[in-house]
Design brief:
five-stranded parallel sheet; 15 strands; elongated
């Protein structure tokens, strides 16, 4: 597929991934992610043809206009859609395969200053939630989902979901629709709910076994409250 055919496909792909897109006017002014990918494709061709300085200039200007930082040396496949896009960073040796969906604030970053592959590989059909940080030479599997604001530093298998800081791979909470992030489980919420229920059970046991101590505690609490009121008056 030629350069202009790829860019045309990127433009048409935006209509498939965003139901809010209703007109060419909206597309022109409100879809920096699509424009960033389009200019990346031009810059990447120049970069691979050894016009690296010109490619970096193009992407530098694109970053100013779109607030999306894509290194022209990165490899981005077909129909990659960056939704909203503000703050997205894609490093030099990153590989993003076909049909990947990237939300705002995502970073595909490196954790090493050595030469060679140091950025992530994102396989076909993966979904990267808003604010996700994917760091190092790791692989995000096909159709995997990364929860919003997760920090991923280890490989994620195909069809899995990873959430948290650092991200943990889970099986439950996977959803077929890539847009339905609300179906991803909240591990922190579930843990707090467990702890609250556990504390309630322990309090109940203590109350049943130590009713006399509870009455004394209530008396002390009343004395303390009376003292505070007296101090205020």
């Amino acid at each position: 597929m030629g350069l202009f055919a790829e860019i045309k496909e990127d433009f048409s792909n935006a209509y498939k991934n965003d139901p809010a897109l209703n007109s060419g006017f909206d597309f022109l002014f409100n879809y920096p992610g699509v424009w960033a990918v389009a200019w990346y494709r031009v810059a990447h061709k120049l970069y691979m043809a050894n016009f690296k300085s010109l490619a970096r200039i193009i992407m530098g200007l694109t970053q100013i206009l779109t607030n999306i930082d894509i290194h022209p040396g990165a490899v981005i496949g077909k129909r990659v859609f960056i939704d909203h896009g503000t703050g997205v960073v894609i490093g030099q040796t990153a590989i993003v395969e076909d049909d990947v969906l990237i939300y705002q604030g995502v970073t595909l970053g490196g954790v090493s200053l050595t030469q060679g592959k140091r950025h992530p590989t994102v396989k076909k059909g993966a979904v990267l939630g808003a604010g996700a940080k994917i760091l190092g030479n790791i692989v995000i599997g096909e159709y995997a989902k990364i929860g919003a604001n997760s920090v991923v530093v280890k490989h994620v298998p195909d069809n899995a979901t990873a959430i948290g800081i650092p991200a943990s791979v889970i099986e439950k909470g996977r959803c077929k629709d890539p847009l339905m992030h609300n179906l991803l489980p909240d591990i922190n919420k579930e843990m707090f709910e467990y702890l609250l229920k556990r504390v309630a059970v322990l309090e109940h046991i203590l109350v049943e076994d130590n009713k006399e101590l509870l009455e004394q505690d209530l008396q002390l609490e009343n004395i303390y409250e009376s003292f505070i009121r007296a101090m205020k008056n």
